[in-house]
Amino acid sequence: MTQAPKGTKDILPDRVYRWTFVENAFRETCRRYGFSEIRTPVFEYTELFSRGVGASTDIVEKQMYSFNDYDGRSLTLRPEGTASVARAFLEHKLYADPQPSKYAYEISCFRHERPQKGRQREFHQFGVEYLGSSDMLADAEVIALAADFLADIGVKSPSLRVNSIGCTACRGGHRDALRAFLLPKKDELCDTCKDRFDKNPMRILDCKSPVCQELIKGAPLMLDYICDECAEAFESLKKNLNALGVAFEVDAGIVRGLDYYTKTAFEFVSSAIGAQGAVCGGGRYDRLIEELGGPAVPGVGFGLGIERLLLLMDAEDACIPLPAGADAYIVFMGEEARAAGLSLLKDLRSRGLRAEMDGPAHSLKGQFKRADRLGARCAVVIGEDELRAKEFVIKDMVSGEQRRVGRADAASAILREFSGIHG
Ligand code: HAM
Hints:
alpha+beta; BirA Bifunctional Protein, domain 2; Rossmann fold; 2 domains; eight-stranded mixed β-sheet; elongated; binds histidyl-adenosine monophosphate
């Protein structure tokens, strides 16, 4: 009862500044690329994900947190963000606006997976969705946004891998070739993959079981089967990425774990954080909106795992500025000094400073220790002598220098000398 559920993590105050740092940076990158924030509900009707993400995916088959609500409808905690954005786009007829539409989000996601480093049951994603353009410029822009963001926050190791997984027109040929390749080994596949063999053999390429991994070595690659239109699109993507100066390698092994993808598939992968090295994954989904009952609106986007990103920043020792400490800490002795302290506290805060004071009063030494722990730039000392003289002592906590200041001038002096705010 006093433990967080398996696969979830508290984010405690001593780590939150790391989250805020990447959140602010992501917002800023999205602003530069013209993506607007969208917020959707934490849960959706279950059918949205079974239709959108795909009934034969691991996510839908065995990872969804689904439950019946009191009205008897099956709801699911979102396992990802794309289906929800597509649903909102349809529900609010946003396709009627001039296109394209560019959305960005930060969400918690829920998948019942076996927890390990970089894999949780509740995790968080940054994501973007670029809807209404079939031009490969959109794919390149989305990829460049992720690359820029990673570079901006000083993350170096992930390499970008791109692939084309074709469209409905060319996938049939690959599916037949894959079945023909796997048929002699079908009995050796894991139970899930035996099932996938009939339903959706491409999913087998994504199986994590070491036995299946071994069996698929040398399997036919989608990239060798793509139609002329998909091949042309892939060439155009590569050209656009080169023109934008985004480094990449082609990795024909990328299949992605969700069914809505067509053409472009990509991942940013790092070996610095263990087995779960995919920090960011995405691709094009030209049939999703139609699949959900809407008009034919193409789309492309990515999801970037925030926990994995922060693990990577730890592993790379990336520089995250520490949060600023308090500007002033008020040290007082006695009841009368407490009242004077509170009045100064109010004054300092109203001027935008972070000022702190604690009660009940500890020893003088104890209060200075606390000022140190809070990283206070200065301490204001109020004792009997100071009250009598209508003065405060201001101590610079870095140099140790002390001086007396008239009570009425104390707040302005602190603002000027210790806050970095100039007013
Ligand atoms: P995804 O590859 O399933 O794609 O997830 C994107 C990212 O979320 C992964 O690269 C990883 O960093 C993180 N992630 C996934 N599962 C976990 C987990 N259990 N624990 C921690 N982090 C995890 C999608 O979700 C698509 N909606 C991306 C997309 C957007 N495609 C087009 N638009």
